[in-house]
Queue: 2 jobs
Job 1
Amino acid sequence: MRLHLVLGGARSGKSAFAESVALAASHERADLPATDQDGETARAQNGPRIYLATSRVYDDMHAERIARHRESRDSDWQLHEEPVALSEALTRLDRPDTVILVDCLTLWLTNLLLDKEDIGNHIERLEQTLPAMSAHVILVANEVGLSVAPETALGNTFRDEAGLLNQRMAAIVDRVDFIAAGLPLRLKG
């Protein structure tokens, strides 16, 4: 399994679950053969765990939440931030011994909407990038379609686009888990 989608509602435990999956995957990646400086085959150390954050800081409350997330992760994580050019960032960070946790697709989609980016183009590029990657990639996304219908046109557009994004990602990944109350329910894989 190389591509994993973790879905859930707000504060459902999806990020904590995704981080535990990343930790386990980094230990599995340590069993992959690697080549040392002399061209000799050796066992890799635990590959890097990369936390690819898509969020922008919108207000003080959001800044505090991001700070709590950072504090909860151990120092073995490498933090990279990319609010829009996600496919390009994934390509740049791709290595066979690497585990990349993207948190989260929903905030990435928010950035695309607010920046008036071509959402379809970005999603198509992501659909092309992910299957070609050699890293283990864990994608986190909110399932927003289970809540009350939005009152605004932008809210409806966001809900619809998020639902379609989740469907498209679920179609190309190896495994999908839905998290509710901190408990995983496997949907695929």
Job 2
Amino acid sequence: MKSFNPSGASAFELYSFSGIVEESGKNLETRVSGGGGGGATYQGTGGTAPISITSKTVIHDQLFLTSKEGKEKSFQLQDFNLACRKGNEVTVYWGIKQGKENGHYLAVKNHTTDQAFFDDGKINSMFLNLWIQAVLILGGIGMFFTIPYLGYIVGVGIFFYAWKRWKTAKNEVASFRQTLRNLPPGLTH
């Protein structure tokens, strides 16, 4: 277990499980949604709304790992698109925020092929609270447009603060990713 204390979000603990791949599987799920269409006519004139259809493919990876101590654990991961096979040495990393019981899978490292796979969305959410960013930006806009002169200064100051928070979080994420790339198997147990 390793602790991280991001400047823009709650502290979290990084956990891991390392082992040899006993079996792996991959499934693809396509989610299709649509909307729109329909229309109306009135006295011989009318129109229709266009139909929009979108699809998203979700990649499901399943791993069965056995540690050096003989403990076996299974992992069901989404959207990592892992490249691993039986016999590869792999570490799965997950983070749990302070005060929480559950967390998210953040990364998988295949030590045999020296490849790292990340869930960028989950990692970013561990380092920057987006609600606070949204409130800061909306507050900056509100100040800028509602209070003449002083609001311009305060609004720009709030925007600058939000930008610094975002930039700091971006640097912390880059450092975190590099740390995970360099960790040997089993270091964070």
